[in-house]
Amino acid sequence: MNRPARRDGTPDRNRTSAPKQGAKRAQKQAGRQGGVPRLSNAKPARTQNVPVPDPEDYAPSDPTAALAAPGEQIRLQKVLAQAGVASRRVAEDMIADGRVEVDGEIVIEQGRRVDPNVAVVRVDGVRVLVNENLVHLVLNKPRGWQSTMSDDMGRPCVGDIVAERVAAGQRLFHVGRLDADTEGLLLVTNDGELAHRLMHPSYEVPKTYLAWVHGEVPRSLGSKLRSGVELEDGPVRADKFSVLEASEGRSMVRIVLHEGRKHIVRRLLAEVGHPVERLVRTHVGSVALGDQRPGSLRVLGRDEVGSLYKAVGL
């Protein structure tokens, strides 16, 4: 951990950083209240997928210019460059090669102008995020936190983690839910159409979980789960299932489902005799949690957003 520095730039081992002091106070308060420590604001993930703009894509007189004002038409190669696809010169080559389409039409002329706030732009069939007002984040939801934007009972919730962004004017919401005892990947966005489709069962977007369960799970269980198990609200079928570890009365398994019914993973594994001790969601579609820390937020990369759009037909 980096320590605060003196004025001469050397670490001061006798001082404690403000975030560390705040964390300790939160832990003490939680201990007194018997609750979960709150995060005063979101910690950024160590790795962020924020494209670094190419200086040639901005006029020297206005290096901080926004992508476009509402309704403004700008050149397609500039849209691609500022969306982080490629430099403007490379984007021109991509257009000439017929790799770019706008609203379902392949564009090969260089002078084409589009409104990036409404146009649907794809490169090699993958949608490119060109509306700078859309926000797509991955949150590693900690265990014990509620998948809500606020909580009447004062329990820690997702809204606490994104409070600073909401206060700054971003109208964010979480995509689906994880129960309080389940941790891991939760998408947070203001992209309503994408969120709706990701949650709708007809699009069958797979979700991957790691589960630590009671009992040594036989590898033959996979065929049973893939064939389908009858629950009180209807049958459920695992897309994929594998046993990663099994020893001393405990197993770790990976399970992939595209259903989103309440407590579906826990109910399914309990039904086959292996109640869940710990559950972590690691993927939604091809978007992975990776080594992101609990309580941290990460901006989705262009390819990740494109993969989600593709999964739901946008």
UniProtKB/TrEMBL annotation:
Looking up Pfam families in the UniProt record yields: PseudoU_synth_2 (PF00849), S4 (PF01479)
Is-annotated flag, keyword Isomerase?
yes
Q: Does the keyword DNA damage apply?
A: no
The record's InterPro entries line, in alphabetical order, gives:
PsdUridine_synth_cat_dom_sf, PsdUridine_synth_RsuA/RluA, PsdUridine_synth_RsuA/RluB/E/F, PsdUridine_synth_RsuA/RluB_CS, RsuA_PseudoU_synthase, S4_RNA-bd, S4_RNA-bd_sf
- For the protein in the UniProt heading, the enzyme class is isomerase
Q: Keywords in UniProt for this one?
A: Isomerase, RNA-binding
GO MF term (any one): RNA binding
The secretion signal range is none
Annotated region (Disordered), positions in chain: 1-65
Occurrences of domain RNA-binding S4 (ranges): 74-135
Query: What EC number(s) is this enzyme filed under?
Result: 5.4.99.-
What's one GO BP annotation on this UniProt entry? enzyme-directed rRNA pseudouridine synthesis
Q: What is catalysed by this protein?
A: a uridine in RNA = a pseudouridine in RNA
Q: Where is the composition biased (Basic and acidic residues)?
A: 1-15
What family does this belong to?
Answer: Belongs to the pseudouridine synthase RsuA family.
- Which PANTHER family does UniProt cross-reference here? PSEUDOURIDINE SYNTHASE FAMILY PROTEIN-RELATED (PTHR47683), RNA-BINDING S4 DOMAIN-CONTAINING PROTEIN (PTHR47683:SF2)
List the protein's name: Pseudouridine synthase
